Amino acid sequence: MTGAGQRPPSSPVCSLAEVEGHDMQQELEVARWRRAERERLRADRMAMAVAARQDWAAALMRHLSAGLSGWLGDPKGRVISGYWPIKGEADLRPWLTELHAAGAIIALPVVVTKASPLVFRHWYPGMVMERGDWNIPVPPASAKVLHPDLSLAPLVGWDRANYRLGYGGGYFDRTLAAASPRPFVVGVGLQSAELATVFPQWHDIPMSVIVTDEGVQSNSLSRSGAPR
Ligand SMILES: Nc1nc2c(c(=O)[nH]1)N(C=O)[C@@H](CNc1ccc(C(=O)N[C@@H](CCC(=O)O)C(=O)O)cc1)CN2
Ligand SMILES: Nc1ncnc2c1ncn2[C@@H]1O[C@H](COP(=O)(O)OP(=O)(O)OP(=O)(O)O)[C@@H](O)[C@H]1O
To answer: Where does the record place a coiled coil (predicted)?
Structure first.
């Protein structure tokens, strides 16, 4: 739903501080609005019944399987990063396991250094995990560091220009900004987590594509080239 929480931060006629082209007052307002939206969307997601969450994940995996060859070609020998589900995220590990069996190389994100790009470590089904930042299970430090060809990015919220609202660490943005070449990024989330806009900021990097329970969310911007 794009209704209730969707009120743009007020944009002042004349901002108090403008530094290096960044309107700081507007940035603060957007940050505050994002915190409230994250909270709302995460609460909605946590309130889902187990069966509904499983249906959501199953639908995502169907749409991901259907889209994969168009995004990446043959997954054999390619590096695909997923995520270990937390906080009501869709559990896509069966899909990662299937890709592993098909010869893809699977990686999971790790926060090695706070406020820095994520590191992707090799993962295989059944691997013994360690506890990482935020208590997220991660492959051990001995696992090989990889550079994904395709990355799944879990969405808390999203908009039709393919922008993502995450947990507020800025990790995916930093990771994509630092990656060369950039992976193809597939944002995965709930259709109901659509926002009219996430009010993209200087640091936000759009997803290559967004997939929800209702399928691939194509939009005119991404079809005609770079969103911004
Ligand atoms: N399952 C899963 N794994 C993932 C991610 C994810 O979104 N989902 N990440 C995707 O990035 C990375 C972890 N992201 C994190 C993002 C924020 C914070 C964090 O400490 N957040 C602060 C709030 C920050 C703020 O609002 O300024 C907090 O909750 O206290 C930790 C990890 C890597 N692994
Ligand atoms: N490339 C970057 N360089 C420096 N700081 C960045 C960069 N990208 C994001 N940040 C910082 O991270 C903060 C949080 O960003 P944002 O609100 O986009 O998080 P998010 O995408 O929801 O989080 P996450 O990816 O961790 O789930 C921003 O306020 C910004 O200051």
So the answer is: none
